[in-house]
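F-box domain-containing protein
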Amino acid sequence: MAQSGGGGGGGQIAAKRGKLSSSDADAGADGEDRLSALPDEVLVLILLRLRTTTEAARTSVLARRWRRVWLLLPELRFHLAPDGHRIRKVLLAPNAPPPLHRISVVTEDSAPDSLGAWLPDAARRLSGALVYHRIVPGVEDLASPMPDEAGEGGAIQLPCFEKATRIEINLGLLGLDLPLAGTFAQLTELSLYRVHLRGPIELGDFVSSPRSPRLQKLRIRDARGVDKLTIHSESLLEVDLRRLKGFQRLSISASALNELNLLKCFGKNQPVAFICAPQLESLAWTDSYDPSSVDLGNLGQLQVLRTNGFFVFSKPDCRYNRDFLRLLQQFRFIRSLGILVFYQRDIGNFPYLMEDITMLPLTEFLTVEVVNNGHNFGPSSFHILRLCTGIRRLSMKLHIIRGLKSACHPGCICDQPANWKAQELSLNRLRKVELAGLEGTEHEVVFLEQLFSWATVLKKMEITFDYSVSKSKGRSRCSCLPRKTKKTRSE
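Tokens:
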């Protein structure tokens, strides 16, 4: 039985819907256009379900009633917009309401005058989020290297967005000029990816409290033109800086800052940094570190620390290892500690360097990421664990480099020192273990067996195999472990 809709005749319309002709597509049985009779608010909700604003504008051909509805949209979304001037026409359309909650543009355009043509009009109408991505074939992934020709294609002038709350810009190697004047009074989140900052305005002045008084999250990644960054902010909660080419100096004074992430910014430059963040709880410093030129200030509130990588086998004067040791020496207790150990594919006859780590901060939650390239990670893991016997939770992640065959071979020195399996170790507070990225190798099985013998009060172990490992192989590899403590799955 067909259900009747609200209002008379709803049941008849439902019963006859399959027989409607194309000319009656939006009309009821009595000839009335019932869809167009819906309130504007309802029609706008319908159009918001379409993927782009261009698709929404095409509904204007349905009926005269629809010609103005798409202009009421609180969001504008353009995917692979062919020309920035067309976006400007939409923003300047007559009778369009001024406030926009979101503008999202993805384009392959390469002409700066076209790319930036619509930004001043967007600044006048936007009271929410701006998301602007320029796609460059081959460099869509933020982790890919930044070509040397970055910024040579011209620059885009960023106007002052007085009412924008969030701005995310990825210019795909083009230059960006920051506004000379104006206050981003409502801005709480700023993300700049793959930009070449140019012009007389310093990024630090732009993101500090006088011009961005409400800014809480700042993310700058894969950028050029930032050789120094000086921030004075009373509102910033999170700063994330990654791969800033040519970066030389960092100075942050932020009374409310809670999280700071610094990844591969200084490169081979001498790191110079001054941090005043008394409320900082989470620090990821995976970069060069020298206590003679880096002042982290008072970090009495710090709870989470992530460090640079440590090479298990390498030359004795390895710079990465030196920075790793220098940083960890600054801390006596860290509630949650994350470290990375790295095995080169060809370790040859390099010396075993784990013995250089003589102490680690006292910690409760330990995260160890291992890039082992097929080598036996048991000896290095044992060395870390014997320096962290008070941990309550252990999380280990094995990283696989795709497309490379295992570099380990019979007689490889990665199993040294060989007596690690015979040494005593008591992890009598360890109750939970998470292991991810396993491939089911013999090295992994041996380590699991040893871990069970060390963790006498272990309550739960979660094992996640790499997607290349079948479920049957995973179960077989774990068959030797006590079932009451383990849980296995494939990624």
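The radius of gyration is 29 Å.
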